[in-house]
Fold this protein.
Amino acid sequence: MTYQPNSDLRNHRSPLMDKDLMIEVVGLKKSFGPLEVLRDINLIVPRGHVVALIGPSGSGKSTLLRSLNLLCLPDAGYVAIGDHKMDFSAGNVSLRDRDLAAFRANTGMVFQNFNLFPHMNVVENVMVGPVTVLKQDKKSARERAIELLSKVGLADRAEAHPEQLSGGQKQRVAIARALAMNPDVMLFDEATSALDPALVGEVLAVIRQLAEQGMTMILVTHEMAFARDVADTVIFMKDGYVVEAGDARQVINQPREAATREFLSHFHGGLA
Amino acid sequence: MDYQWDFATLWQYRYLLLEGLAYTAGFTVLTVVSGVVVGTIFALARLSGLRVVTVPVMAVVELFRCTPVLVQLVWCYYALPMLTGVEISPPMAAFLTLTLYGAAFYSEIIRGGIVSIDIGQWDAGRAIGMRRGQLMGKIILPQALRRMVPPLVNQSVLQLKNTSLLSVLAVPDLLYQGQLVTSATYRPLETYTLIAAIYLAVLFPLTRTAHWLEDRNKA
């Protein structure tokens, strides 16, 4: 293989057996028209690790996250999550709907704006994936959905409709919906950015609980203190590059790169 | 004005008028169904984003939206056979014209309904691994349909009214039968008043339904 992962991440790799490797990204590139959003991204995430992606807006972190479950199709590179692999090197891009769907079913994603299905109640939101995609029977899918809803503290709202929930509750339903697919990896795209400050905590608590249970996760976040305390690795991105990646406490508390320091200086109020 | 109203004379022509109503209703139902089917195909074709499909479909849609349906009807019956060398019957010409005319408008309603659904819904459906058809069937269309139904009903009301134009091709719809009755009775005032009343009786409940559906969707 001809690729050079970023130095900090490469160190993770050598001692790992393949079964411990959950996410591998090699040479990922993406442009929107003339705008290069991702320029040669390499990433390795061991099973059970939590990675926080930080950086200014427009740095490409959301695009990177969306490339991991192929909501955004890379122009070049290689993405592997668990047993699912996709190669976007030149001439190899015959992307069939079926293959994309299978790849995506293996990753859970939580969005900034929740994106609950408004025509379904809470438990139906959680069940629809397993029933439609995994062909589970409705009864066991419902039982599992209720179980997941209790896990996020919302079993009593199973029959409510999304518009009756607070933002924090909606986001917890969205997390349950993603977990219902039994994904290998959970991706959080600014999951708390649209929430009232008072409701951020309840969502972060659920994410923290998932981390403790060993879920492999990548979070795009502006919650620096949370990134420092919950993530194993923090990756700082700017202009489509990974500028700095390493141990979460080190990157947040003693960033090596000037750009990282500059970015983090805006957050010091929230880092106490 | 001392005009002697005489609706009673019309009673003997009731079967003729009923037959006309049946033609009107039949043509409406038929061309609403065919129009929605063709309109859905047009809408999906336009949403495909493939220029080889979208450009011709857009051309057909605009052609039928920007010419009067009466002109289309006459053209289809008198001019098209000269072009193709195939004679078509008046009902066939009427069916073809109203289907495509309806489809042009329905396709815009259907396309509009689909694109009005927030992009986040597509993301969320894809993210849980739904395939294109599942996403359409379970997530997008159920939401889009609720928004589409009131304009679809409104368009279908217009479709029913447009069937009155079929009388120019001597298709025996309600208006055409009215003309027959008039020429037999010399009672145009009663006859056409009755014809108008029948249209009103059929369409008023439909427009109320459309209103009701709109209000319900807003709630």
Observations:
- The two ends of chain B are 50 Å apart (CA to CA).
- The first helix of chain B runs from residue 14 to 47.
- Chain B has a mean pLDDT of 91.
